[in-house]
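User: Sequence recovery, please. Input:
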């Protein structure tokens, strides 16, 4: 009896595996056959769109060339070109996407109760570079992948209200959404983000958002960000002040050095270390005497930052490191010895 049951189990599993294999092969065959059947139409549509972008065809001709393709394939064809153009050419492709029904279908999918359809619609809109009126709702979607795709759509419609909402996504519980929001803010540009940040009150942003926002600004840093760095350098949360130090170093200049100097006496170890790292990043050797004093800081992380900063300042930094070998503070002597013992400095000395 037991052998019969085992035999039935083995046979049923074999049949199931066979069905799965046949199904997979059939699906692959059908997919490949469909792709080959559509390839001429895809090539013709791509060629017509290229002619449109070069001024040799009209929008109506491009729409006709896309009509024989399914909506999702139209979106893929348009999306393959949207990422390669800017300005007027990108605007032309957006007109084609709207005229051939891609935008209408995609917007309809974004309003579906099914998260998979909402995601599909949002992805198509991102590919064709069109931000729908429902973008505010999509940024608050309960499904993280939809929120992430919606975040990437903001770069196509940088209205202050949407940028402000995108900044809020920096504290999203999903890491994928946070990453998408940071990437989108960087792509929105320094001037757009700075304008919105300056309008926001301190109580409108959580500590996590303020720190993440400063991290974003570091990637697009320019002199217009100095007021932001100065504002957050006196924030009550140490992570935010650390971000202000990194932003000041990224901006540089006299004003950036001034902000870093004020943070050298910050009560938080991490903030002092970030400010010292900033001086090292800038290679600002006039600060070497002040940085050398931090070799005897009570916090090891600050002493390590001071040693590294002096090392990056070149000859002036090495001079103060050698002087620190005779320092009365054993911690300062130890850090100087560690840094000077590094191979490249030992060779230079």
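Assistant: Recovered sequence (349 residues):
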């Amino acid at each position: 009896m037991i052998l019969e049951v085992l035999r039935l189990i083995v046979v049923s599993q074999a049949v199931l595996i066979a069905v799965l294999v046949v199904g997979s092969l059939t699906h692959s065959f059908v997919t490949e056959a469909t792709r080959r059947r559509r390839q001429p139409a895809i090539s013709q549509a791509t060629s017509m769109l290229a002619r449109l972008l070069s001024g040799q065809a009209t929008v109506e001709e491009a729409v006709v060339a896309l009509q024989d393709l399914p909506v999702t394939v139209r979106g893929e064809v348009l999306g393959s070109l949207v990422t390669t153009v800017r300005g007027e050419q990108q605007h032309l492709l957006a007109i084609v996407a709207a005229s051939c029904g891609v935008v209408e279908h995609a917007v309809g999918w974004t309003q579906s109760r099914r998260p998979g359809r909402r995601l599909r619609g949002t992805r198509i809109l991102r590919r064709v570079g069109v931000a729908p009126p429902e973008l505010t709702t999509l940024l608050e979607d309960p499904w993280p992948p939809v929120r992430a795709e919606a975040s990437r759509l903001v770069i196509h419609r940088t209205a202050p209200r949407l940028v402000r909402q995108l900044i809020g996504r920096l504290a999203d519980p999903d890491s994928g959404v946070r990453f998408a929001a940071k990437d989108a803010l960087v792509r929105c540009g320094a001037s757009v983000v700075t304008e919105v940040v300056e309008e926001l009150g301190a109580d409108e942003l959580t500590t996590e958002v303020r720190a993440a926002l400063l991290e974003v600004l570091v990637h697009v840093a320019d002199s217009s960000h100095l007021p932001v760095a100065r504002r957050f350098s006196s924030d009550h949360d140490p992570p935010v002040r650390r971000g202000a130090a990194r932003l000041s170093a990224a901006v540089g200049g006299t004003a950036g050095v001034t902000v870093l100097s004020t943070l050298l006496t910050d009560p938080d170890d991490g903030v002092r270390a970030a400010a010292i790292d900033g001086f090292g990043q800038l290679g600002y050797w006039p600060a070497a005497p002040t940085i050398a004093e931090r070799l005897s800081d009570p916090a090891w992380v600050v002493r390590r930052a001071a040693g590294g900063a002096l090392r990056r300042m070149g000859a002036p930094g090495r001079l103060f490191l050698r002087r620190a070998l005779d320092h009365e503070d054993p911690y300062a002597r130890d850090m100087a010895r560690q840094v000077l013992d590094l191979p490249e400095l030992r060779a230079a000395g």
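The first helix runs from residue 2 to 53.
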